[in-house]
Amino acid sequence: MSISTKDGAGNDKVAAAGTAAAAVVRLDRIEPLGGTSAARLVREVAAQLVDQADEIAATMVHAYELEIPAYAAMTDEALRDDVHAVSSAMVRCWLAVMSTGEAVTPELLEPMLEGARRRAAQGVELHSMLRAYRVGIRVMWSEITGSPSWRRGALDGAVGQVATWALDFADKISTAVAGAYLEQSEHLAREREHRRSALLNVILSGPAAEPMDPPPELDGRHVIAVVRVAPDLTLLELERTGQLLEERGGALLWTVRHRSVVAAVDCGVGRERLARRLARLVHESPIV
Asked: Which of the residues 79, 97, 122, 149 has the least number of beta carbons within 10 Å of its own beta carbon?
């Protein structure tokens, strides 16, 4: 592999637009409880617990932090509040299912779908988010069945049916939020790839006919590095080369070509230090 650089200045800003389709979940109307007395008691318990939704959600969030490293690492209070708000929405959604026996409405589901999309944008891994839902539903079930309202209602005979509802609820909600997360991740990946490729196409094409707003990544001093690689590298290996340039070479933006990776590299450290840094990658990298 060889690396050549030339002075470059960014002069375009491209934003990929797209509208994600809403994820859809259907929770069919659940089977009614065997006796009208039990059904009435379940509705009463659900109504009594609605005002405690935020408190139950706080217990759920505490469990996430104890059991899921990604959530334990969240120190941003705004992000923690976001997680609590979504958990509270899930509690209210479940209590609505308990009280009506009807399908989850789009209005009840939407806060959880939006939360899943935000987790994708925030970089929370899918398996961590889905584990949070599993932990949350477990804690929510324990809090509800252990509440004074539940115990006073003498609902032990209804536990089996309500547990069936809870399992179905957990399965359908997890499927819905996973779909929303993956859809958003794909959208972000397409947008990122389109943006970085379009920006570098403009940079490499020379001065534009009309002035354009430069992308913020290229506001500072930078150079364009062309990384020439072996002709038989796969797309995955080309992508790994770009990631390596970003992680260890200071690349601000990069894209792949047929037999090269083109990157806009920060040269705030000075051209000589940058040249040494890139030269080390040539000798140390198992790919390039």
From this structure: 122
